[in-house]
Amino acid sequence: MFRFAPSPNGQLHLGHALSALLNRDLAREADGRFLVRIEDIDPGRSLPSFEAQILDDLAWLGLDWEKPVRRQSEHLGTHEKALDELNRRGLLFPCFCSRGAVKAALPKGAAVDPDGAPIYPGTCRELSAGDRARHIRNGDPYVLRLNMQKALAEIGRPLTWTEIGPDGKAKEIEADPTAWGDVVLARRDVRTSYHLAVVIDDDAQNVSHVVRGKDLYHATSVHRVLQTLLDLRAPVYRHHRLILDKAGKKLSKSEGAESLRTLRSNGKAPADIRKLIGI
């Protein structure tokens, strides 16, 4: 089982086309199944109009997928149940620090996570139950973080995942979840996150192969922690090359990457898209 899982917060670009086509092509080669999942857990940015455009672009590329499409927003109760289980085991804690406060609490040159963000210094990790209750009672905004050291202590063994390289050969990769520190698993108003939702939905949909961009390679370490804690199946992973812009940066919706819809309107055909992305 393969899946392509876009977020409906913008239009698809060439990087999305590469991931979607690779997933469908690999599914065919493996005589497997291909799914599309809409990852719409961010209510402030996810729009039905973007979802409709995404599905239209995928159909234009010549893709077909099993119906119905799974929308993460329709399964938030499942995500919250998993979150509550982790909380019951004492693996979560509320953090009341803003991003600015986290950055201000760190010395210059402090370590950063694989995405380049400052690693959380643990400011709220040891707050007393009374202090936590006071903050919540006052309506202070917060996120729920995973106590990574406590989680790894509960697991009690090194974690690995199976990675398929560009040559098609499999190798075992040692996970390094400590590189991320105490990752955010939910907000007060949104009781899930990308990390939590993706492992739950992959398991629920029996996804056997996760094929995604190499920008998510290091996130797999966090996903292996959550899969192990929640007794979820671990897929095989394949992290493909990224499509870069003229400045050498990966294409991004937020940076205004040229969309598939623009390319379509300029006369490009699906075969042209394959040539542009090199498959």
UniProtKB/TrEMBL annotation:
- Kindly state one GO CC term assigned in the UniProt record: cytosol
What SUPFAM superfamilies does its record include?
A: Nucleotidylyl transferase
What InterPro entries is this protein classified in? aa-tRNA-synth_I_CS, Glu/Gln-tRNA-synth, Glu/Gln-tRNA-synth_Ib_cat-dom, GluQ/Sye, Rossmann-like_a/b/a_fold
Please name the GO terms of the biological process aspect recorded for this protein, alphabetically.
glutamyl-tRNA aminoacylation
Q: Does the keyword Cytoplasm apply?
A: no
Which Pfam families does UniProt cross-reference here?
A: tRNA-synt_1c (PF00749)
Determine the domain of life of the protein's source: Bacteria
Q: Which residues form the Glutamyl/glutaminyl-tRNA synthetase class Ib catalytic domain?
A: 3-267
Q: Which residues form a coiled coil?
A: none
Enumerate the UniProt keywords alphabetically.
Aminoacyl-tRNA synthetase, ATP-binding, Ligase, Metal-binding, Nucleotide-binding, Protein biosynthesis, Zinc
Record GO terms (molecular function): ATP binding; glutamate-tRNA ligase activity
What PANTHER family is this protein classified in?
GLUTAMATE--TRNA LIGASE (PTHR43311), GLUTAMYL-Q TRNA(ASP) SYNTHETASE (PTHR43311:SF1)
Q: Tell me which family the UniProt entry assigns to this protein.
A: Belongs to the class-I aminoacyl-tRNA synthetase family.
Return the protein name: tRNA glutamyl-Q(34) synthetase GluQRS
What organism does the UniProt record list as the source?
Terrihabitans soli
The gene for this chain is gltX2
